[in-house]
Amino acid sequence: MRKIKYLFAGFLALSMLSCDDYLDINDDPNNIHQEDIRPDMQLPGAMVMTYRVQARSMNILGNIFMQNWYADVNNYTGVNTSDEYTLDISNNFYDDIWDGLYVGVNNFQQVINYDSQDYDNHKAVALIMKSFYMQYIVDLYGDAPYSQAFLGQELLTPAYDNDADIYRALIDNINAGIDLFYTADSNDAVLGSEDVLFQGAINKWIEFANTLKMRILLRQSELTDATTQAYIQDEFDVIATSGVFLSTDAFINPGYSDATDANMNPYNNLFYNSSGSAQTYYNYTRASAYIADFLNGDINGVTDPRGSVLYELVGSSSDIVGAVQGDFNGPSELSHIVPVMPDADSDGILMSYAESRFLLAEAYDKGYLSGDAEMAFYEGVQASFSLYGAGGFSTYYSQIDAIAGLGWNGGNHMEAIMTQKWLATNSVNPIEAYIDMTRTGYPNIPLATTALYSNRPYRLQYPLSEYVANSANVPVIPQAQLFQVGPFWKN
Fold first, then answer.
1. CA-to-CA distance for 192 and 201, rounded, in angstroms?
2. Would you say 261 and 269 are in contact if contact means Cβ atoms under 8 Å apart?
3. What DSSP designation does 190 have?
4. Which of 19, 219, 394, 445 is most exposed by smallest CB count within 10 Å?
């Protein structure tokens, strides 16, 4: 990691004159003074920057690891995904996830640190968003710089914190953010158009904060020690006092448009440029054979209507056609990916309502909260159909109800939740499905035929930038250990 990352990388000087200006990034810290950047100017840029990492690199990795996508190397050789198949995880493997998230989170920290008592609403948002993205750092890497990571020139080589300790700090951030919303007064600046997620709706932010807190708590719920379980239950009891969770999809849109590639929805820009021409990933990416078989009903006997929305149908059979990951001699005609964010100006999907419902189903089923787990599960599947714009929900739901690992009454609630969450996060936020599979073992997704290990990595390798700029602190992790030891919630 370059030292500037911890200092002030990615400064976003963002004008309030136009939503499009939120997309303008000033990467030169010498041209701007920190004290001149008000929270209402810096916050939207931080949100846009971190979401870009989520929508692109994290989305690609999640889709490939979870067998949603296949690389059509027969017809296009513009990208190489052999490492994702072989699982040759080096310190260059998706290193832009670590680097990009730290740059963005540093900007959230600058909002939190702003020397004024008049921006409590903005600081609350920054605290919550800091937790949102630092959770992914822990989930994907384990121990990480945290308590010393955002001190600027005071410390350019931060120590690594224990990942379990970071998780506790993330919960504290969320609690502090919610408290700031409740205690903000008439002297505090009102969230306005710079809130590119909820447009200043504080009630939506509290719903989102509770949902994020639930996600963080559930991630560690497989740990059985009494201390951890008591902590989880205590924090769920705090959540229960408000009892509100994400009630709509959390869409982010700072003014995406087709003016230039940089102004486009970052996920859509993977597939098309601003003039509408196909990009590398449209030409290169196809359905995998496993997701094709699953959605076509070849594995469980039920055709999933979401398939025809997510993938182009091929041939007279009108099926999804995929190729086996690792097999470079697949069918000549394969199903293209249909972007779930279809236009340059499409809203980005930070967190879906479907995910919120599946989190609630798990919390209810495990007894952390009181509620109807089956109804929450039902609502999660229904919300997924709605988000994708797929029809036939009622018929599909009745068909899967008693199927093991797919429907609620199939005998294994956890497997059903995780399988449906996998289907609901396809191309939306599939890194969640990968992390949950690491945590729970569900769903049981096959490896590529060229995989060198018997399971996917439980965590990723620290990037080369850390070994260059923070070598005294970054742990040295042998590749084999990535497949044996995960974050604290896995071990």
1. 9
2. yes
3. P
4. 394
